[in-house]
Write a structure and sequence with these properties.
The protein has one domain. Helix content is 77%, strand content 0%. The chain is built from ten helices and no strands. α2 runs antiparallel to α3, α5 runs antiparallel to α6 and α6 runs antiparallel to α8. The relative contact order is 0.08.
């Protein structure tokens, strides 16, 4: 275990004191906003988005404290990394309330939720998702590869991928990705980021299934993310790309069914009294 000098500890605590104070003030603000939230409040959407901003700011302070712990004392702060992860989780919950957590569904199923944020323009939405993604990435980098949080971070990133997709206005997306339109570059880059996040989510749940859980639910989620990718490809008229996602989904579904049958056979053979 690393021996930390008293001088290093003193310097560390002096550096993080202002950050702790900022977190305390943010938590007080968050509690006040949460108390004001009501189901039929027409401003609830924007209060939730304000909460997202505050949660992500809190996460950035905890991540900064972890960085100071590493640089000044040579050890990572498990507490601050866990708190940063918790803040990211709270932010994603609020984003799901605003934009829904629907994965492989028609745009019409969540269009109303997107329209309810009309005063929060698309580029602010994109910035918020990028900020959340960066915070999660820094949390993951802060923990070790074999951290106990590995798979819960995969799940958080996957949930963020869903919100990233649901932030896209699919009614105007195709037109907006014309190079002649204002915001073309930002819109195109965000779309590519969303595709990558969805693909990472599909791969993450597939790996989770193979390495740890063997749960059909994880496999189904992986396939659902491929379905979401296929919908986006079809929207843009990328038929070959859509066919590839469809083919991959079918292969994964067959693998899932095959694995399920193997598990059922094993259970039957190893049932008490079966010998």
């Amino acid at each position: 275990m690393t021996k930390v000098s008293e001088g290093a500890k003193k310097k560390y605590f002096a550096k993080i004191a202002p950050l702790r104070e900022k977190i305390y003030k943010l938590e007080s603000k968050e509690r006040n906003i949460a108390r004001m939230l009501q189901a039929n409040d027409p401003g609830a959407v924007y209060k939730r988005l304000a909460l997202v901003e505050d949660y992500l700011t809190a996460a950035s302070y905890h991540l900064a404290m972890n960085t100071l712990s590493v640089s000044l004392m040579g050890i990572r702060s498990e507490h601050d990394l866990s708190e940063a992860k918790k803040s990211c989780s709270f932010a994603i919950v609020q984003l799901e309330h605003v934009f829904t957590n629907l994965i492989d569904v028609p745009f019409q199923d969540y269009e109303a939720s997107l329209k309810a944020t009309s005063s929060f323009d698309e580029f602010r939405r994109y910035t918020l998702i990028r900020k959340a993604g960066l915070a999660l990435s820094m949390v993951k980098d802060g923990f070790s590869e074999n951290s106990k949080w590995k798979w819960s971070l995969v799940a958080l990133e996957a949930r963020l991928a869903v919100v990233a997709k649901n932030c896209l206005d699919l009614q105007t997306l195709v037109q907006g990705m014309d190079p002649r339109h204002v915001g073309y570059r930002e819109r195109t880059e965000y779309f590519k980021l969303t595709q990558k996040m969805l693909q990472d989510a599909a791969d993450g749940y597939r790996k989770k299934y193979e390495i740890t859980t063997k749960s059909a639910e994880d496999f189904r989620l992986a396939i659902n993310f491929l379905g979401a990718l296929r919908r986006l490809s079809l929207l843009l008229g990328r038929q070959n790309e859509a066919n590839e996602f469809k083919k991959k989904s079918e292969i994964w579904r067959k693998n899932m069914e095959s694995e399920s049958k193997k598990q059922e056979s094993w259970l039957v053979m190893n049932r008490p009294g079966s010998t």
